[in-house]
Amino acid sequence: MLDAGRTQGLLKARGRQRTDSTHVLAAVREPNRLELLGETLRAALNALAAMAPAWLRSVALPVWYERYSRRIEDFRLPKTPAERAALADEIGDDGFRLLAALDGPESPPGVATMPAVEVLRTVWRCHFEKTPDPADPSGNGRARLRPVSGRGGEDRLESPYDTDARYCSKSGMEWTGYMVHLSETCDDDAPRLIVHADTTAANVHEAMRTEPIHVALAAKGIAPALHLVDSAYVSAAHLVTAREVFAIDLVGPPRKNLSWQQRQGGGFRAADFRIDWEASRAICPRDKQSQSWRDYRDRSGSPYVKVRFNPADCRACEARAQCTRATGVKWGRNLRLRPRDEHEALAVARARKETDSEQPLYALRQGVEGTLSQAVRSFGLRRARYKGIAKAHLQHVAVAAALNLDRIAAWLRGRPLAPTRRSRFAALAA
């Protein structure tokens, strides 16, 4: 579809594009914790029964055939929390027993690294720990559920039948599955075509996809000159990389300044200090110069500058309450600055957001939400039809191609864009 758009002169590089994302529900049932544990072990047993039936028959306990012969949700699970915890511990012991046999010398070649077995290892590592048991002569201990401490962790699996799907909580909404990022053109003299579909696990933040999207657009030869996004895609590093590496003007509201000076109003923010990068010094709003300037790196290896002011100057300053809450004779105002290019890029972006002439650009970005709505309502974008991120991405590419086909046909026929729909009740306000 993109090649056809180029041939017809409907798609050009170095124009305007916009990007946004929406959530996608995985094509699997979301089990509770007990069901997840039982189904994970059952899936591993089924895979082993096909791969090494004779070996599995020799290690399986008689109770396993009763406990894991059917889907866990088909059984009547215990009602009390204590009984559920006891059943979970029994399932944990069964899983550890199977893993120990798989790692033993009599295990058939290749079965210990089967995908279903790797899933079993991952789930058991996340949900169980072993505790000493005096009644166990082998000294291996008993399985015990780990305390529930959120749903984080990169390897936290939500279903043994879709190991790519992940849990996410965003803006009061929770789901298990994926995220899809759609990028479309938004030039006035051409149809609005989707130029890239990017599919990730649900727990991958939008900020992690800004640069990969630019790389993909550049590889297709259709990188924009102006890229409109929301605040989730914008950081100081993104602004610099987009400009210097891809020659893209990344436009979006930068993340809010959460310092107490900003929230209080009237406080001296870091932006109120004059920075002399050549002389490696900062000057406060009361014209006092910094005492020290040092380069550091944070835990991720990103560089930053730490600027300290003379505590004596800060103690004597009449505006101290507007600047710092530090106490003690050795404490004055400190600044933490990004590298110069990032610091200046962020300052420009924040100033740009307040400029009246730039507001139409921010309004233009919101138009991509109509594309997401059309993809969801007309093509079922929000529900994965298949399991696994590869097939989910193929579905998203197909949806994007279908949207483009419809939009090219509308453009050639002269069909105008539909206006924003309003409910009858909302129309009464006008």
Structural features, described:
- With 430 residues, this protein is α+β, with helices and mostly antiparallel strands.
- Helix content is 40%, strand content 17%.
- The protein has 16 helices and 13 strands.
- It has helices at 2-7, 33-51, 53-59, 62-67, 81-102, 115-127, 210-220, 236-246, 260-264, 311-316, 320-323, 340-353, 359-365, 368-379, 389-413, 424-427; strands at residues 16-25, 128-131, 142-145, 166-170, 173-185, 194-201, 226-228, 249-251, 274-276, 281-283, 290-297, 303-309, 334-337.
- Strands 1, 4, 5, 6, 7 and 8 form a six-stranded mixed sheet that branches. Strands 11-12-13 form a three-stranded antiparallel sheet.
- The longest helix has 25 residues, at 389-413.
- It is globular.
- The two termini are 40 Å apart.
- 30% of the residues are buried.
- Residues 130-161 are annotated as: Disordered.
List keywords for this structure.
single chain; 430 residues; Nucleotidyltransferase, domain 5; 3 domains; six-stranded mixed sheet
Give the class from helix and strand content and strand pairing. alpha+beta
Major β-sheet, in short? 6 strands, mixed
Rg over CA atoms: 29 Å
Which fold name fills CATH's third level, the topology of the largest domain?
Nucleotidyltransferase, domain 5
N to C succession of SSEs: HEHHHHHEEEEEHEHEHEEEEHHEHHHHH
Share of helix among residues? 40-55%
Tally of separate helices: 16
Q: Which segments are poorly predicted (pLDDT under 50) over 5 or more consecutive residues? A: none
InterPro entries: Tnp_DDE_dom
Protein name: Transposase
Domain Transposase DDE: 283-408
Organism: Azospirillum lipoferum
